[in-house]
Design goal:
Elements lengths: L2 E8 L2 E8 L1 H18 L12 H32 L3 E7 L15 E9 L14 E4 L4 H14 L2 E3 L10 E9 L11 E7 L5 H7 L7 E5 H4 L2 H10 L7 H4 L2 E13 L5 H7 L8 H35 L6 H10 L7 H27 L6 H16 L9 H11 L2 H22 L4 E4 L2 H10 L3
Parallel strand pairs: 5-11
Antiparallel strand pairs: 1-2, 2-4, 3-4, 6-10, 7-8, 7-10, 9-10
């Protein structure tokens, strides 16, 4: 009779030994062998008349091994279903020598499996989290910048004869040179596109009034401010922080001059930007844009607050993991095998992800957070409407419900929508449990916070 023995081999790390006897697997093997004899098509023999000895010789070994392994797996999962241990993933097989199996000498066999156990832990009290709601106020400067962007996007490109404004877009051939403008033999040579205002003020003056074909010699570190310099160095094939490369001189030959004529702020332009709104004046346009910008920053503030809550729970909820088991699972449990070194490098991020899964599942369960079918359908409808945007969909919208019906039959689509909605509900719930202090910050400051933490 088959038995399963469990023993501890490490922190939250157990071994299961499954032992099967001949009586457990041999009847199934014998039955399978007879089925092969009845159905085998072998030249020289009528179907069903192949000698059992020949079938056993040809297929017996693989059938024998398969039936032993099937029996072991059945006993393993019967044990797991009965005992219900709280485990990560599926048990991993330890080294088992299938070569020991001998069809001519059926015997008792033992197979070992390791399993990682989920830790017991106490969830951090989220009401004690000290968090800050960083608020950004939409300014007139932000509105003006957005209007300028819209004017340029909707504008018309022209090709003036000479460089005349800081808004000119220059196609420049960068040729490596020395301080005296003499080209460096086999030096770097590459064409690039640069907006004149991205150059330093002193360098901009050198280009004013220049025409196509004319050249300006610059030292890179003096021609570009630090943030733009890093991009130019990379475009030229250097590392972005290469100090020696930044000292190099280049001849900058003007290949082409371009200038976008900004779109005029007319009612027709307002209609293109906001077809669903009746905007007739610049003041109304600014008010609409300011409202959108404010909504954007409020959403970013909310995201950053949620990030703080995530980190509080991750940092303050203490739990241990069966590291050795999980690292081995990382090596063998994915679509592609990984080396021990790759698993070691991935483990910190993987363990945090695992920790968050346990925390979020507990919060969802303890607080009875749910997503209904109606909410799933409404979410899908919103996605459809967002996809079609401002297109005229006609008066008959019954096709939308039919489309949603099809989406609801797609398991991947339903799972994706469910995860998004339950995550939103989870974080919205978490926000109700804290009282953040408010702090006014700039957009750049908030963007910096968001850049440092992406989850």
């Amino acid at each position: 009779m088959a038995t399963v023995v469990r023993e501890n081999i490490g922190l939250l790390h157990d071994k299961l030994t499954v032992k099967v006897s001949k009586d457990d697997y041999f009847p199934a093997f014998d039955k399978k062998l007879k089925e092969y004899s009845k159905n085998a098509n072998i030249p020289g023999f009528r179907k069903g008349m192949v000698p059992a000895g020949m079938i056993k010789k040809m297929y017996g070994g693989s059938i024998f091994t398969d039936e032993v392994i099937k029996t072991v797996e059945k006993e393993l999962y019967n044990y797991l279903n009965a005992e219900k241990p709280e485990i990560f993933a599926q048990p991993l097989p330890l080294t088992n020598d299938v070569a020991q199996m001998d069809i001519n000498n059926p015997a008792d066999y033992e197979f070992g499996f390791e399993m990682g156990l989920k830790p017991e832990y106490t969830l951090a009290d989220i009401s004690k989290a000290k968090v800050t709601l960083h608020k950004v106020t939409a300014t007139d400067a932000m509105v003006d910048e957005e209007i300028t962007r819209m004017q340029i996007k909707g504008g018309k490109m022209t090709e003036p004869e000479t460089v005349a404004t800081e808004e000119d877009v220059l196609n420049i051939l960068f040729k490596e040179a020395d301080k005296e403008s003499t080209a460096v033999e086999e030096g770097v040579s590459k064409e690039n596109s640069v907006i004149l205002k991205y150059l330093t003020t002193a360098t901009q003056k050198k280009f004013m009034g220049k025409k196509i074909g004319e050249t300006v010699t610059v030292q890179l570190s003096k021609a570009f401010d630090e943030d733009k310099l890093a991009m130019i160095l990379q475009d030229l094939g250097y590392e972005k922080d290469d100090k020696e490369a930044a000292k190099k001189y280049f001849n900058l030959e003007i290949v082409k001059i371009g200038l976008v004529e900004k779109r005029e702020l007319t009612e027709d332009f307002f209609k293109e930007i906001y077809p669903a709104k009746e905007i007739k004046t610049i003041e109304e346009l600014k008010a609409s844009i300011k409202e959108e910008i404010q909504q954007y920053w409020e959403a970013q503030s909310k995201n950053q607050l949620q990030d703080q809550l995530y980190h509080y729970l991750i940092d303050e909820t203490k739990m241990e993991f069966p590291e050795e088991f999980l690292k081995r699972w990382l090596q063998t449990g994915g679509e592609k095998p990984k080396t021990a070194e790759e698993a070691e490098a991935e483990f910190p991020g993987f363990s945090n992800q695992l920790k968050w899964t346990l925390i979020s599942d507990k919060l969802i369960q303890d607080n009875k957070l749910q997503v209904t079918n109606e909410e799933l359908r409404e979410s899908m409808k919103t996605e459809i409407m967002r996809y079609f945007g401002t297109m005229n969909l006609g008066d008959d919208a019954s096709w939308i419900e039919s489309y949603i019906d099809r989406m609801m039959k797609d398991e991947k689509q339903v799972d994706s929508s469910y995860r998004r909605l339950i995550t939103d509900k989870l974080f919205n719930f978490m926000e109700t449990q804290v009282k953040p202090k408010e702090k006014e910050v700039t957009g750049d400051e908030l963007n910096g916070m968001m850049h440092n933490h992406q989850h």
